[in-house]
Design brief:
The protein contains 10 helices and 20 strands. By secondary structure, it is α+β, with helices and mostly antiparallel strands. The protein folds into 4 domains: 94 residues, no CATH class; 104 residues, TATA-Binding Protein (2-Layer Sandwich); 113 residues, Sandwich (Tick-borne Encephalitis virus Glycoprotein, domain 1), CATH 2.60.98; 88 residues, no CATH class. A hairpin with a 5-residue loop joins strand 11 and strand 12. The longest helix is centred in the N-terminal third of the chain and has 30 residues. The two termini are 65 Å apart.
Length: 450
């Protein structure tokens, strides 16, 4: 049992396991970036064939970041990180708890990585006071002993030993945030016709064909499109009223201007003709050129200006054969066979060219729907907190040097004798200059000669 436990611990503390998991996660992220996500099965079947489509479905590659195996990999990496940190912590704790011996001799100091020795002409007591004042000014962790020689031990930058653990903690928080988003987050679409209210999200990915009902509703008051001179869309604007019980407020959602509310983010994704639109036509009498405005609710006959017949919108498409919004109308006149025609929003002359009759029709306006992409990412703030912790850990690890220095002061026939020693566990070249500066400062305070 003990051997088995040791093997399990060795497995989870393995650096190879961490590297393997990171490589697999990196490949998964590449797939999730390059492979279009949350597409209908027929899209993958057409693009990758029967075999490729089966592989995509088997491994849930159509929604990588919510796949169970992706969540398992994140969980394993989290356990590996915790196990590695716990395995290496005792050694760090021993370093942090290390107390230098108070009885410092010349042999100990001479074996340190950095050391200096000089004679000071100041009296022993005066030198002791000056050295105490100097070190207390610069170091918070200060140990002083006088038994019988005067010894000072100082430590600085001990927090640097915690740097790797702070980094691990930051990564751990990021992984937890990723897991939260993967398990509880989702993305989907809302389709709201102008003037209507909805709280229904059609979920994508692994929850395809499922719906989620928001705890509040959105009403599309108006959808507007601004165009460039060449006819290309410039700006999509959804004028929305958020209805949350008794609370109501108006806002505008546009491209690159999402709405954030109660943990949900709404992006302007697309738009189109409403399923049962009300269409406003400009009706022109061919002979006289006289113009009228006629508003036709979907599938409802509306009298023509001369009351001699009616017009009815029977079909509507957001994009008919790449010609843009199109409406099929039926014009019924007394004792005549009904006329069926298409009226294209982007080609106002189409009806006049393809249909004979007393009047020509041009689309002036129609009821649209707004398509909003909705994302719920409950782990995003956890990830941001983890990133801040990670950056803090990196700064501590790279910019703070853990350093220890010892000073021994002993009486001498010329005044007093000074031994100075120091050590650093990393960035030794940088500490070399720091130690030399301190040796020079000690000499300057004591006005020593060599």
């Amino acid at each position: 049992m003990r051997v088995t436990l040791q093997r399990v611990l060795k497995f989870f503390t393995s650096v190879r396991l961490a590297i393997f998991l990171l490589l697999i996660l990196a490949v998964a992220c590449i797939i999730g970036t390059l492979l279009p996500q949350s597409q209908p099965p027929e899209v993958y079947l057409k693009q990758f064939g029967n075999v490729g489509s089966k592989i995509i479905n088997a491994f849930s590659l159509y929604d990588v970041y919510h796949a169970r195996w992706f969540q398992v990999l994140l969980s394993l990496l989290t356990l590996n990180l915790i196990a590695c940190s716990l395995d290496r912590f005792p050694k760090t704790w021993r370093i942090l708890q290390y107390n230098a011996k108070k009885e410092i001799d010349e042999k100990f100091l001479s074996h340190l990585s950095f050391n200096a020795h000089f004679i000071c002409k100041l009296p022993f007591e005066e030198a002791k006071e000056k050295l105490s004042a100097l070190f207390k000014k610069e170091f918070s962790q200060l140990e002083v002993a006088s038994n019988p020689d005067f010894v000072i031990h100082v430590k600085k930058g001990s927090i640097s030993h915690w740097g790797p653990y702070i980094i691990h903690g930051g990564i751990l928080v990021i992984l937890i945030g990723g897991l939260i988003s993967s398990i509880f987050g989702f993305s989907g679409m809302m389709f709201i016709p102008e003037g209507e209210v909805s709280n229904t999200i059609f979920l994508e990915g692994r929850k395809h064909h499922q719906v989620y009902n928001l705890p509040f509703s959105l009403k599309c008051d108006k959808f507007t499109v601004e165009y460039y001179d060449n006819g290309m869309p410039k700006e999509y604007l959804s004028h929305i009223t958020v209805i949350d019980n008794q609370k109501k407020f108006k806002t505008t959602i546009k491209v690159n201007g999402p709405l954030d509310y109660k943990g949900f983010r709404f992006y302007q994704a697309n738009f189109g003709v409403a399923s049962n639109p009300t269409v406003t036509f400009e009706v022109t009498e061919r002979k006289t050129g006289k113009k009228f405005t006629l508003t036709a609710p979907f599938n409802t006959p509306v009298p023509l200006p001369d009351e001699q017949g009616a017009i009815k919108v029977v079909k509507a498409f957001s994009d008919l054969m790449n010609f843009g919004p199109a409406f099929q109308v039926v014009i019924q006149k007394p004792n005549q066979k009904p006329q069926t025609s298409w009226v294209l929003s982007k080609f106002p002359e189409f009806d006049a060219m393809h249909r004979k009759g007393k009047y020509t029709l041009v689309v002036k306006d129609f009821t649209r729907f707004t398509g909003l992409e909705v994302k719920k990412d409950p782990g995003v703030w956890v990830v941001w907190i983890g990133c801040i912790i990670l950056v803090g850990g990196l700064m501590i690890s790279f910019f703070i040097i853990p350093q220890k220095m010892w000073l021994k002061l002993a009486p001498h026939k010329q005044g007093c004798e000074v031994w100075l020693g120091g050590m650093a566990s990393k960035r030794r070249e940088t500490f070399k200059h720091i130690f030399q500066e301190w040796a020079n400062e000690v000499k300057e305070v004591l006005t020593c000669g060599t």
